[in-house]
Specification:
Helix content is 50%, strand content 11%. Helix 2 crosses helix 9. Strands 3-2-1-4-5-6-7 form a 7-stranded parallel sheet, sandwiched between helices. The termini are far apart. The protein is built from 11 helices and 7 strands. The chain is globular and about 50 Å long. Keywords: Oxidoreductase. It comes from Lentithecium fluviatile CBS 122367. This is NAD(P)-binding protein.
Length: 328
């Protein structure tokens, strides 16, 4: 599918003001692309009910107050939790299942750049890997029964690197022996798409949308350089950062695109490709290149990836139980 101009995206979003009653869950909505998407969502929808997960409600209070003013008819529910833990994901999902009969949208964009050595959570999963892959799939699996009951056609939008898949490190899916920033990015992306395709077969009435936002002017990139020292990084601040500012899209435009992906008919289940799992590029184009994924599918890696994912969850929860026993 060809690139979609931002003017067309905004025009489609503006027509959403006639839509009401949406129920959504946002993960990663307190900064960056997620915050911009949340802002656009509230700007366009009439009286939505939105759950937002974050570490500290006090830290997000000012942002939430501003958003409430933007849409006084919206119901915004903040769930305070550390979402990098599988156990906490289960708690959040249980809270939503207790209150809702359906969920129209699960939006996920939590994460950060993984430099240096892995930083393991108390459940034994690297935090970057957990946020970019393992907790996202746990959220999807737990909430799919609700999402599949959406009267509008449920959607899962996950912002990572859809369409940028690379070959898997097949003998080390969890990167215990091959951890570095490039491998984490590549492995998370390919695992993500294969897992979405696995789930899509189980829930054919749900749209699974894996988005690559492209270069976006978020604080994550800029802070990386402005908080660093050394000759090369000083040079980068004077060269790469200005260049980045010229070629990157604004965080506002990226947020508009994510709302578009969450609502436009072209990304529904099934889409024009006959699939209900879509990879979407930086200009809202649906990616159809299967040179990497085709052989992996033929070798059964959708199923193998899901088996690996479930085994990591099981081990994480076992480790967590051991930690809690020692505490109490």
């Amino acid at each position: 599918m060809a690139a979609i101009p931002i003017t067309r995206v905004r025009g489609a979003n503006e027509r959403l003001t006639r839509t009401s009653g949406h129920v959504a869950l946002f993960i990663g909505a307190t900064n960056g692309i997620g915050a911009s998407t949340f802002h656009s969502f509230l700007k366009y929808f009439n009286a939505p009910k939105v759950y937002v997960v974050g570490r500290l409600k006090t830290k997000a209070a000012a942002q939430l107050a501003t958003l409430q003013e933007l849409n006084s008819a919206a119901t915004i529910i903040f769930l305070e939790n550390e979402i990098s833990l599988i156990k906490n994901v289960d708690t959040v999902c249980a809270q939503i299942k207790e209150k809702e009969q359906h969920l129209d949208l699960l939006y996920m964009s939590a994460g950060y750049l993984a430099f240096g050595e892995p930083q393991y959570t108390s459940e034994g999963i690297d935090t970057c890997f957990a946020l970019s892959y393992y907790i996202r799939m746990r959220l999807a699996q737990n909430l799919l029964p609700l999402i599949s009951r959406s009267p509008r056609g449920g959607r899962i939008v996950s912002v990572l690197s859809g369409g940028e898949e690379r070959g898997l490190i097949k003998n080390d899916l969890g990167l215990k022996n091959n951890y570095n920033v490039i491998n984490v990015a590549n492995q998370s992306t390919t695992l993500h798409t294969l897992a979405f395709e696995y789930l899509a077969k189980q829930y054919p009435n749900v749209s699974f949308i894996h988005v690559y936002p492209g270069w976006v002017k978020t604080d994550i990139f800029l802070n990386l350089f402005h908080s660093s020292s050394g000759c090369l990084l000083t040079l980068a601040r004077w060269t790469l950062v200005p260049l980045f500012g010229l070629i990157a899209t604004s965080v506002e435009d990226s947020g508009e695109r994510q709302v578009y992906h969450a609502t436009d008919p072209k990304y529904e289940a099934p889409g024009a490709s006959g699939r209900n799992s879509h990879r979407v590029g930086a200009k809202s184009d649906i990616v159809v290149d299967d040179r990497v994924l085709g052989p992996l599918r033929a070798e059964g890696w959708r199923e193998k990836v899901w088996e690996h994912t479930e085994s990591v969850w099981a081990e994480a929860l076992r480790v967590r139980m051991d930690v809690e026993r020692k505490i109490y």
